Amino acid sequence: MKIVFDAFGGDNSPIEAVKGAVLALEARRNFSIVLVGQQEIIFNELRKYQYDKDRITVIDAPEIISNDDSPVLAVRKKKNSSIVVGLKLLNDIPGCEVFVSAGSTGAVLTAATLLLKRAPGVIRPALAPVLPASGNKQVVLIDCGANVEVKPEMLAQFALIGTAYARAISNNQEIKVGLLSNGREVGKGTSFIKDAYDIIAQDDRINFIGNIEARDILSGEVDVVVADGFSGNIALKASEGTALMMLKLIKESILNNGIRAKIGYLFLKPVFKEIKKTLDYNDNGGAVLLGLDKLVIKTHGSSKAKSFKAAILQAASIAEKGLITQVSSILTE
Hints:
47% of the residues lie in helices and 17% in strands. It contains 11 helices and 12 strands. The chain is globular.
C-alpha cells in the first residue's frame, strides 16, 4: 500500500510533515509513503532521521497553494503544486490508495473532485471527521464543509455513506444515525431538512433515530450525525472551541484556587491527561472525503508531527479495511 502525502500542506510543513511521516513508518510496516513537494527541501529534512529508504519516495512539486489562493484558480493554474501532483499520483501510480494533506481545504476538495472519479452512485462526496463522544465512543460528522448547499437526497446519501464509514472504523453493524436540526421533534428544521428526514426515515438501510440537536452530537447517542456542509462545519468548530475553552477553564481554576486545588490536581493528573488526549485533534487523524474512488484525508492546517503521524496511520487503517468497497456496497444494497 502506498500513501501519497502532501509534505508542503499546512502551517508547519515541511519540517513537521516530514517528521510525522518518519514517525508513521516507525509505527507500522504495511505501507510506504510518497512524499510530494519541493524535492530538495524534503531530502534535506529527511537527512535528519534514520528511516527505511525503501519505504519513502519523493516526488517533486515546486509550486505551493496557500490559504490565500482562490481554490479553483489555484488548482487550474498551479498544476505543479503538491496538492495537484499528489492527487494525480493516485491515478498514475499502482498501489496508491490514499492522499493526505493539511493544505488549503478548498484546494484539496476542489482538486479531489476534479481529478478523481466519484464512487458508483455517489451524488456528491462529503467530508467526514470522527469526533470523540461520551462513553468512550466515536461519532462520524458528515458533512463538515464540502457541500454548503445541498438537496435532501444528498443528505440521505450522506447517511448511507456515513453508516459505511462508521461500520468500518468500529466493527459495529448497528450504526445509529441522527439528522442535525434545531430541535428533536419531527417537523423541526428548514424545508430541506424536513424533506431529508422523510427520505432517510423511509430507507431500510439506515438505522435512523430522528433529529438530533448540536448539543447532543458528542453524547454518544448516535454513531453518525448528518448535516449540510455549512451547519456541520459550524458544529465542528464550535465543538473544538468548547473543548479548548473547558481545558483552559480547568487549568485557570486550579491555578487560582490555592494549594488545595493544586494538591487535588496532582491526584487527578492522569485523568486530566486522558481527557486532554481524547479531545486533542492531534491524536485523532483527519477528516475523510467520502464518496470518491480513492481515499482523501484532510487534516488540520495547524498539524504538527504527531497529528501528521495519526493521519497517515488512519489512512493506512481505513484503506486496509476496504472503505471504498464498503461505501459502494451500501449504496447498491
